[in-house]
What we know:
Number of domains: 1
Membrane topology: Single-pass type II membrane protein
Order of helices and strands: EEEEEEEEHEE
Radius of gyration: 14 Å
CATH topology: Umud Fragment, subunit A
EC number: 3.4.21.89
CATH class: Mainly Beta
Strand content: 25-35%
Amino acid sequence: MNPTYWEQEIVQVKAHRKPERFDVVVLHPPDAPEELYLKRIIGLPGERINYQDGELFINHEIVSDAFAYRTEDFNWDSFSNQTIPENYYFVLGDNRTISKDSRIFGLVSEKQILGIVQEGNTKK
């Protein structure tokens, strides 16, 4: 999650609630359930995600994403022929060029998400 978070940085995890787009979450990845990852929620249930020319598209509409310029083109249709199922999320790391995330291990279920990271001093 560099540059947002650094290796060995301590973070505060909030009580669990339904994740929202761009929340940073602590999760067990599907391919390594004993590990913990920090990733950013990008796609929500019922959506299709595309990145094209440094822009994020959700269901074919542009959505502002601070890290989109770092994201390689990604076409949802090559990933799935359906939308993100209920209780599943598409996650990406902030260091998109080297991040192991949903582009590699697939969608993350709500059950795999342990909590939402409290960023800065903001309250939600």
